[in-house]
Amino acid sequence: MKSLGFILLFACAFFAVFFQSAFNGFRYSIGAQIDLLPPLMVFAGIRMRMIPMALLAIWCGFLLDGVSQNPLGSSMIPLFLVGWAVNFSRAWLVQDLFYSQFLMGFVASTLVPFFTLLTIIAVSSLKGLPNSPDLHWGLLARWMIVAVTGGILTPIFFKVFDKTMQALLYQAMPDSRFRVNREIVRRR
Q: Could you tell me the pTM of the whole model?
């Protein structure tokens, strides 16, 4: 992925965080705020190298923690861990099928809120902050809504970003110097 792709993903991360924080329609209608960053990290883990993916996780974490009441950096580590796990195992993953993209997005959207919650609880207990998260059974339903929407959004992100990259970036021409089907006819 070229530098234009990096810039496009960083801009999409900015707009995803803006959309999550500015528009509350999903929060009021379905009872949970959808999270757009885990599907974005799954895409980045599959299509990017490790360093740009880590920079994207840091960027997303700072953006999300800057507009929420989370301690700074609490969502950066879970986003990076999801991106790292996908990047590390992308050779074994079936990348272009709908159900595998759905499952990767579902698992990522399940793990990121869980690890973010663990990080917030750990940081608030270490600092002695009185505003630790309120845990109740209603969180499970919201958690599953976030996980299912993340699973649904991941194949959509793959389709949109792949079409965008195909339209904006040039495709490398194959080297036609040596043909595979070339036959040399030898006569005596």
A: 0.84
Express each pLDDT in 64-92 by its tens digit.
999 988 888 889 999 999 999 999 998 88
Number of domains in the chain: 1
Q: What residue numbers bound the domain in which 25 lies?
A: 3-168
Q: Residue 84 falls within a domain, yes or no?
A: yes
Residue 147 falls inside a structural domain: yes
- Tell whether 173 is covered by a domain: no
Token digits of residue 150? 């993340």
Which amino acid makes up residue 142?
A: R
